[in-house]
Amino acid sequence: CSWMMSPHSTPTLLVPLKKLGSGHSPRLCTPKTNVMFLKTHKTASGTIMNLVYRFGVKHNLTFALPKEQHFEYPKLFHSRMVKGFSEQSGQHYNMMCSHMKFNRPEVQKVMPADTFYISILRHPVSLAESSFNFFKSLAPAFKRSPTFEDFIANPWKYYIPYLRFNHLARNMLWFDFGFDHNAKFSLQSAQSVVAEIQQTLHLILLADYFDQSMVLLRDALCWSLDDVVTFKINARTNAKPKCLSPAQEEQLKKWNALDWYLYQSFNKTFWKKVERFGKRRMDKEVAILQARREELQNLCLLKGGKPPKVKQSLGQGVQRCQTAPVTMLRYILNSNLRPSDKELCSRMVREGYQYTDLMPPCQGCPQLGPYQ
């Protein structure tokens, strides 16, 4: 695989790279600069959001921004929710990546016709556990349930359909994609929804296979290696896992039947893409990505910023074990960084809402130059 940089960018050589470089070598493709990322919940989407913002800020691109931190979620997205947008102006933006309940016709009013649409999914079992811990005080069904095990055993005891934020407790991915999370499962309707998503989105990533996802994303967007190297954003520090039983896992799959069908469908699609990409080529690219991430962690982060080790699932790439209440991972930058390295490192650990604070009212205006 070979690569070409954006004509407006230059490689940043921060440390000796042992011939890894930042992944730039000739390739006959042009980096995509119109990208819409549908940010789903508890799926490593904050990490993807960081790389989208980093790329956009680096290349002085414009962002469709919400008037606050998100597009009035959980309301269905409407173009009027975009700060400064007017249909009459005919204005379009390069990038869009804030939380929303997806609404394709309204998003298409804001984004150019050649926009590349991406999103990310996570195995519904591990997603449910993460959601219970993270949204315990927000989702009414989780508030009412003493423990996660109690919720799994009898979710209808705690769940009242259509209560605000109860979508966080059932078929959350289905909801984020713009569909009814309380709909009764039927194969025909589920197939119809998946077909609609396939027509709209060009690439669905899997949080459970994050590095493989980054390789596919890099290939699809024709971005550089450093553009897709990430540190985990908004991730938990993990206590000793308490694993769910197979029966509990099955209960969660049934409870989140729409999400489970969605995940199974795009899991198949994902591995077909990996097969077309080439297994040996994928393994090589993943190794390069991981090596570069470790280099940047050692450069940027105190003690390499390595989070505690997490018990891995048995070859499935899915962590299905319950952990303790949420404690979020925070990074501390090394104190002896050169100014140029400090800027790059600080951007790699910056959360999405912190990026919006960098952006001037007139995004991408020539007289303002690159974002600071």
TrEMBL record:
Molecular function (Gene Ontology), one example: galactosylceramide sulfotransferase activity
Query: Where, per UniProt, does this protein localize?
Result: Golgi apparatus membrane
Which keywords belong to this entry?
Glycoprotein, Golgi apparatus, Membrane, Signal-anchor, Transferase, Transmembrane, Transmembrane helix
Topology of the protein relative to the lipid bilayer = Single-pass type II membrane protein
For this record, an example GO cellular component is: Golgi membrane
The organism's superkingdom is given as: Eukaryota
Protein's GO biological process: glycolipid biosynthetic process
Please give one Pfam family short name: Gal-3-0_sulfotr
**Gene3D superfamilies on file:** P-loop containing nucleotide triphosphate hydrolases
Establish whether keyword Heme is in the entry: no
Q: Which family does it belong to?
A: Belongs to the galactose-3-O-sulfotransferase family.
- Please name the PANTHER family in this protein's record: GALACTOSE-3-O-SULFOTRANSFERASE, GALACTOSE-3-O-SULFOTRANSFERASE 4
List the protein's name: Galactose-3-O-sulfotransferase 4
Question: What is the source species?
Answer: Erpetoichthys calabaricus
The lineage, from the top, is:
Eukaryota, Metazoa, Chordata, Craniata, Vertebrata
